[in-house]
């Protein structure tokens, strides 16, 4: 980190769109605090650790270190508090004093700049910026009393915390207590405990401010402050912290330094492309001037009338013929250029790392045909696809990089930078969908980032054949008029593609005919040799096996080397089968590969030798062995996720190799393309002026005629431009979004670096739009956007009554019952500002609407806005409809949650032995209840509850759940999003006839007990089409706890779970138990996708539970990356208050799993029954489990179980013997709830 920060201290002026920091001129951040300087330079002020001997601290601290602040008098007030805090302005930071820094910053200086960091940082998902600002301001506030205690002061950390905590308590009392004092105290404790995402961000800002200040002191005072950089190295916790520290984004130091850099260093790069990037200042504005096309600044509608726009349009059409001549003076982009997303100094780079496939090795287009044909054969021969599919041929003109596949609808699509489907970029099979078909299928082009995550991205070159084969298979079924499951087609094609790679078929095909598939490149050898000659270290890290890499490298370089195997002399380390991206996060050991015997040694690898080959390994061990520091390493790769995401997060610099970039830039440089692009932008500006001029006027026939002509000309130019470029590095593509995220720079080939001097500074161009290699927009276009936004805001402000508008929307939705009566929450005085409590409004609404429920039912509509509320109860024959862009925001005021008795089948709260807080939305003994919307949100604001729970703040009470319905029937929860629940998200208990459908649940993966959906002692329940990211089990099936559950005796039965997608790294996808004392039976689970879960299906129970788990059926699971696939445990020994019966043994029997695939698994199964009460009748069939690179030695850990298996890989334990081919049971009948047909309703 030190190297990056030091060498970039003279130029940080980044204005790229996705920059973490906004564009600020350096003087804004080069802060000077005269008060602090004056105080620090005062002869009466000693600079010491105030905890020991500071003149300020001595009168305030007792001999035992306790704080002895006089108690506040009746006159104590905010003024007294602020007067005490003023000491922060005059108390220097102790570390600078010990290094003899002149005029050192004060504690207040430090806190203030941290607050600025929080203020100017971009929005971070899951992080509240306002909270970060507040926390930055108060995190060191206790130092007003105890001073700046640093590690060099010799005060133990525990003692430091005690002193500061006591000081904080006195300061809060001085403030007079109350809400603000409590908030300050809570923010301080949250920061000290590092207990929230905001705390982690602010702690990173604390370190960033330290090294930023050290940089300034080094430059201004000539100090060597190396220790401060070393003290923070590798300790940043957040992406923004790492990015600002390690990716050169801190915009610091003086403006004159920047200008001097620009003059002295840019010319050295001008002939190699960087000047091309930064010299595109004469953009379309200059082009318009040269063509004599008048595009003046905006003025009001009074000055610019339609006739003037018509005149400008006619003039533009006449002068279009002059564009080609004007283009001759416009600079062109360099096809071999390096394009910069994040500033990069090559003289800082000491280590160069490379991927192999499509990075060092260039392949011909014939490789895609080879992969396509091999995968197609596998699907026909092994998966029994129709023989006629063998006639399919790979079409190189069809796929592009960066496509997405919708596994539900079967469409291949291109997404733009913002997650919307490109209008002309969606295919069903080989047929492009029209805009009308696209609208009918998806409703809207905008997928949104959350929805887009459930799509499958096809991001690398190997995906070309995969995309083509998917489209051909879909087209086959469409042409044959056969029903098909789009997800199955993807799974089969993906499995086939994976097979041809893992089996070595592709590798053998390439090496059998290298002249056909591999492209020799003499420049690559020159580049690698030049790096070695400059003393750089080189390493090769690839997922491919060594024999394949060796064969390819010999072919690529043998003519230049003369000796077939001397390519290895170029590399200091060669790592094969690295298993990226897991390499960057795992702790797998390196294994030394014996080329002659084709075996791996088991001896520990603690050093690397150039004459040896290494397999597997991990980043942690790699850095320990090599001692190579992150910022001095640069890694080249073609796959944005597998190759570059891990290195970018680990602090390495990254280069994306995008082979198609060179062709795209050649096309962009053609005058015909540039001509149409110029026409398009000129017309676009005229259109913008037109809309801004007439947006509030009645359009006449003349206006409409002009508008039609402008639109027609723009569409013609757009279609011509799009016909030129078929790749997906487009300036508005989702692929470009990922390039920005994970690539510091990008280029078409590694050897393009030869054209840059080794001391080159690669700098972000100041005028980029989305991608640095694209044509820039004129300033006028941005003015149009601003004007239209202002007009839209004004129109929104003058809209009619919100309630009437909401009712007029007439949104369609599906529900078990429609409602005769309707109301909007604003009719009851609710305010959607996110600050005003609406608890009273919700309660009043439901009370007043309840009498109408018997007369055809009633619905309460929550319109767009943020509606803060505490707990409220629903009523029968009632629908709560949450509109899109509406958020029910859970209050963090505990007084707004009544305390209620624990459930009878639990006997106590789940967190503690006492009662529970009422859930946010709840109801008891209800009939016909619907909670739905068109993807509205319920935000539980769980952070407050998580922090307090972890710190032991809830002594005898359980946190609230988000949704809980008790003893109710005919319940529907659908089409909503729930985020950050305090604990469990959805909890129907003692209910009958329940539907949970189309629900998205999102919580941090480390949030405590945020189970997704917990059906509890329920009968006839359907859970389908849900997406859950959770800190606990995605679904947990329950029926009561120990003696309390046995006494109530209400089982969960007739439960169907289907089409669930789940992510939960520390818990189960679907758990049965552990609270199962009332019994669980007849559970059906099918078409489940589990990604990064601890286990797939887990049965949890214990001695004393009693009850049973039986008649469990699961099929068609797709699982990736997990510790266990199947987990059954009889040792889940959490019990309520004493009194459980140790003789109450659970019965676990008739468990059926079939038709499943799992990839990257550490241990297939851990099945632990009771010695005196074994788990019986376990059946597993047609299950294929692919192990992780370093699996458990004991793959199947089985005790006290019995059952059978059939066609299961790896082979199960002896307690599940292989039986004759058999399919484990799955019921053919339906449970009653699956036959319910929902009604079409409107809100």
From TrEMBL:
Phylogenetic classification of the source organism: Eukaryota, Viridiplantae, Streptophyta, Embryophyta, Tracheophyta
Q: What UniProt keywords apply to this chain's record, in alphabetical order?
A: Glycosidase, Hydrolase, Magnesium, Metal-binding
In which family does this protein belong, per the annotation? Answer: Belongs to the 5'(3')-deoxyribonucleotidase family.
Chain's gene name: A04p023750.1_BraROA
Which domain of life does the UniProt lineage start with?
Answer: Eukaryota
Boundaries of each HD domain copy? 107-211
Q: Which positions make up the signal peptide?
A: none
Q: Name one Pfam family in it.
A: Glyco_hydro_28
Q: Which CDD domains match?
A: HAD_cN-II
The protein, known as? HD domain-containing protein
Q: Which PROSITE patterns match?
A: HD
* SMART domains in UniProt: HDc (SM00471)
């Amino acid at each position: 980190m030190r190297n990056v920060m030091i060498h970039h201290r003279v130029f940080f002026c980044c204005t790229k769109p996705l920059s973490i920091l906004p564009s600020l001129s350096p003087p804004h951040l080069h802060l000077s605090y005269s008060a602090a300087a004056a105080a620090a330079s005062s002869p009466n002020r000693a600079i010491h650790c105030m905890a020991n001997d500071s003149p300020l601290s001595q009168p305030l601290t007792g001999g035992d270190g306790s704080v002895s602040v006089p108690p506040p008098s009746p006159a104590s007030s905010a003024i007294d508090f602020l007067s005490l805090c003023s000491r922060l302005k005059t108390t220097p930071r102790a570390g600078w004093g010990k290094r003899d820094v002149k005029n050192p910053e004060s504690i207040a200086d430090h806190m203030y700049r941290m607050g600025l960091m929080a203020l100017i940082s971009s929005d971070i998902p899951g992080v509240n910026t306002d909270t970060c600002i507040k926390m930055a301001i108060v995190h060191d506030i206790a130092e007003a009393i105890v001073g700046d205690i640093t590690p060099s002061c010799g005060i133990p950390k525990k003692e430091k915390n005690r002193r500061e905590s006591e000081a904080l308590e006195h300061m809060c009392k001085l403030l007079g207590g109350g809400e603000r004092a409590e908030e300050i105290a809570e923010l301080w404790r949250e920061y000290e405990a590092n207990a929230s995402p905001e705390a982690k961000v602010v702690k990173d800002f604390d370190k960033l401010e330290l090294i930023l200040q050290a940089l300034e002191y080094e430059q201004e005072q000539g100090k060597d402050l190396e220790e401060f950089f070393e003290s923070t190295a590798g300790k940043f916790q957040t992406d923004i912290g790492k990015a600002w520290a390690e990716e050169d984004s801190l915009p610091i130091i003086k403006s004159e330094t920047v200008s001097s850099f620009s003059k002295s260093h840019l010319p050295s790069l001008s002939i190699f492309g960087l000047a091309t990037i930064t010299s595109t200042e004469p953009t379309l504005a200059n082009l318009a001037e040269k063509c004599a096309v008048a595009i003046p600044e905006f003025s009001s509608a009074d000055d610019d009338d339609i006739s003037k726009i018509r005149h400008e349009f006619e003039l533009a059409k006449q002068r279009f013929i002059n564009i080609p001549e004007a283009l001759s003076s416009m600079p062109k982009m360099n096809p071999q250029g390096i394009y910069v997303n994040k500033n990069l100094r090559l003289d800082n780079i000491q280590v160069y790392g490379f991927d192999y496939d499509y990075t060092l090795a260039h392949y011909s287009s014939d490789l895609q045909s080879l992969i396509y044909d091999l995968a197609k054969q596998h699907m026909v021969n092994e998966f029994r696809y129709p023989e006629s599919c063998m006639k399919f041929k790979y079409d190189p003109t069809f796929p592009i990089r960066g496509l997405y596949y919708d596994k539900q609808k079967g469409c291949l699509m291109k997404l733009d930078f913002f997650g919307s489907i490109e209008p002309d970029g969606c295919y069903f099979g080989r047929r492009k969908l029209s805009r009308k078909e696209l609208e009918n299928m998806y409703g809207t082009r905008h997928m949104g980032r959350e929805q887009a995550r459930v799509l499958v991205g096809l991001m690398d070159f190997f995906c070309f054949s995969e995309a083509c084969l998917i489209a051909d298979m879909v087209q086959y079924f469409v042409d044959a008029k056969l029903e098909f499951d789009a997800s199955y087609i993807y799974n089969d094609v993906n499995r086939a593609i994976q097979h041809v790679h893992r089996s070595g078929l592709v590798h053998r095909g390439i090496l059998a005919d290298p002249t056909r598939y591999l492209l020799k490149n003499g420049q690559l050898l020159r580049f690698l040799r030049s790096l070695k000659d400059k003393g750089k270290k080189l390493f090769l890290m690839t997922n491919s096996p060594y024999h394949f890499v060796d064969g390819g490298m010999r072919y690529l370089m043998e003519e230049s080397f003369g000796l077939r195997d001397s390519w290895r002399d170029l590399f200091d380390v060669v790592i094969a089968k690295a298993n990226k991206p897991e390499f960057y996060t795992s702790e797998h050991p390196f294994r030394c590969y014996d080329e002659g015997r084709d075996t791996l040694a088991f001896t520990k690898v603690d050093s690397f030798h150039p004459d040896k080959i290494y397999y597997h390994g991990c980043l942690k061990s790699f850095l320990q062995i090599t001692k190579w520091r992150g910022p001095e390493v640069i890694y080249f790769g073609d796959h944005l996720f597998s190759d570059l995401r891990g290195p970018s997060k680990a602090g390495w610099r990254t280069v994306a190799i995008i082979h198609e970039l060179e062709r795209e830039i050649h096309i962009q440089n053609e005058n015909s393309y540039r001509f149409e692009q110029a026409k398009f932008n000129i017309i676009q500006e005229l259109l913008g002026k037109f809309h801004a001029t007439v947006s509030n006027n009645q359009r006449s026939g003349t206006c409409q005629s002009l508008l039609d002509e402008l639109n027609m000309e723009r569409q013609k130019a757009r279609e011509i431009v799009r016909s030129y470029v078929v790749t997906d590095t487009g300036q508005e593509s989702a692929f470009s979004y990922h390039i920005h995220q994970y690539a510091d720079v990008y280029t078409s080939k590694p050897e393009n670096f030869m054209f840059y001097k080794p001391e080159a500074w690669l700098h972000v161009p100041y005028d980029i739009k989305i991608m640095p290699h694209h044509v820039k927009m004129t300033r006028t276009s941005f003015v149009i956007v601003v004007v239209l936004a202002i007009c839209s805001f004004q129109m929104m402000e003058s809209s009619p009554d919100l309630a009437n508008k909401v009712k007029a929307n007439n949104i369609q939705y599906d529900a078990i019952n429609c409602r005769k009566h309707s109301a909007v929450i604003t009719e009851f005085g609710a305010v959607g500002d996110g600050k005003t409590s609406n608890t009273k409004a919700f309660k009043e609404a439901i009370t007043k609407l309840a009498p109408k429920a018997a007369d055809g039912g009633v619905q309460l509509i929550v319109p767009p806005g943020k509606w803060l509320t505490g707990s409220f109860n629903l009523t029968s024959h009632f629908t709560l409809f949450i509109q899109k862009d509406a958020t029910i925001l859970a209050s963090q005021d505990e007084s707004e949650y009544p305390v209620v008795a624990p459930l009878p089948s639990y006997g106590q709260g789940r967190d503690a032995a006492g009662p529970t807080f009422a859930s946010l939305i709840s109801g008891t003994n209800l009939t016909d209840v619907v909670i739905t919307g068109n993807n509205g949100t319920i935000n539980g604001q769980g952070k407050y509850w998580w922090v307090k729970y972890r710190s032991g703040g809830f002594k005898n009470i359980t946190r609230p759940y988000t949704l809980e319905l008790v003893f109710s029937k005919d319940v529907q929860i659908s089409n909503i999003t729930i985020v950050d629940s305090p604990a469990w998200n959805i909890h129907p208990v003692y209910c009958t006839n329940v539907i949970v459908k189309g629900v998205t649940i999102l919580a941090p993966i480390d949030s405590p007990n945020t189970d997704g959906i917990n059906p509890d002692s329920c009968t006839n329940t359907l859970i389908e089409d849900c997406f859950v990211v959770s800190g606990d089990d995605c679904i947990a099936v329950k029926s009561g706890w120990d003696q309390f559950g046995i006494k109530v005796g209400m089982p969960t039965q007739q439960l169907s779970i289907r089409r669930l997608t789940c992510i939960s790294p520390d818990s189960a996808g679907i758990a049965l138990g552990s609270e199962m004392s009332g019994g669980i039976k007849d559970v059906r689970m099918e078409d489940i996708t589990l990604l990064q879960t601890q286990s797939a299906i887990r049965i949890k129970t214990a001695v004393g539970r009693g009850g049973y788990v039986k008649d469990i059926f699961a099929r068609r699971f797709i699982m990736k990356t997990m510790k266990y696939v199947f987990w059954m445990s009889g040792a889940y020994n959490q019990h309520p208050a004493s009194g459980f019966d140790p003789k109450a043994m659970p019965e676990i029997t008739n468990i059926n799993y079939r038709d499943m695939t799992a990839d990257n698994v550490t241990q297939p199964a851990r099945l632990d029954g009771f010695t005196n009460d074994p788990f019986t009748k376990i059946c597993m069939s047609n299950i294929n489990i692919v192990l992780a690179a370093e699996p458990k030695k004991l793959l199947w850990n089985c005790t006290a179980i019995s059952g059978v298996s059939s066609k299961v890989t790896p082979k199960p334990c002896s307690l599940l013997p292989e039986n004759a081919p058999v399919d484990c049971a799955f019921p053919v009948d339906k449970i009653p709830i699956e036959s319910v047909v929902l009604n079409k309703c409107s809100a």
